[in-house]
Amino acid sequence: MTDTEDLDARTRADLAMTEILKQIVAPIVDDPLAVAVQAVRDGDDVTFVVQMAEADLGWFSGPMARTGESLRVIVKAAGLRAKRRFFLAFETIDSAGGDDFGDLSRS
């Protein structure tokens, strides 16, 4: 497999994970139209940033956020299978300034 084919496979995998996350998160939140997911690459590492309405963030971020922790386990397992490091971050649409995905902390 050439470097270009490997990159294309990684891009497809990132897009697939982005779509899967959106399909999982959108039905859970009160405002599914506000859900946006973006893959941010840093070398072999990928951080999937899930944006949602501020009212929905409590299910995914914070001390009692079991739903978010469960999704992190799934994303990390997918990264292991792909032989890459995958991370998951949750943000509100307002805190990220619209489509700007702001400061990303890995978790």
What labels would you give this structure?
107 residues, alpha+beta, GMP Synthetase, Chain A, domain 3, three-stranded mixed β-sheet, 2 helices, 3 strands, 21% strand, globular, disordered C terminus
Q: Your description of this structure?
A:
- This protein is an alpha+beta fold.
- The protein has one domain (3-92): 2-Layer Sandwich (GMP Synthetase, Chain A, domain 3).
- Helix content is 36%, strand content 21%.
- It contains two helices and three strands, in the order αββαβ.
- The chain has helices spanning 3-25, 66-81, and strands at residues 36-42, 45-52, 85-92.
- A three-stranded mixed β-sheet has the order 1-2-3, with helices on one face.
- The longest helix is centred in the first third of the chain and has 23 residues, at 3-25.
- The N and C termini lie far apart (31 Å).
> According to CATH, what is the class?
Alpha Beta
* Helix proportion range: 25-40%
Tally of extended strands?
Answer: 3
Q: Spell out the CATH superfamily.
A: K homology (KH) domain
CATH A-level architecture: 2-Layer Sandwich
Tally of domains: 1
Task: Give Rg in angstroms.
Answer: 14 Å
Helix and strand composition category: alpha+beta
* H/E series: HEEHE
Return residue spans where pLDDT drops below 50 for at least 5 consecutive residues: 96-107
Distance between the termini: 31 Å
Could you provide a short overview of the structure?
This protein is an alpha+beta fold. It has helices at residues 3-25, 66-81, and strands spanning 36-42, 45-52, 85-92.
Write the layout of secondary structure elements.
Blueprint: H1 3-25, E1 36-42, E2 45-52, H2 66-81, E3 85-92
Parallel strand pairs: 2-3
Antiparallel strand pairs: 1-2
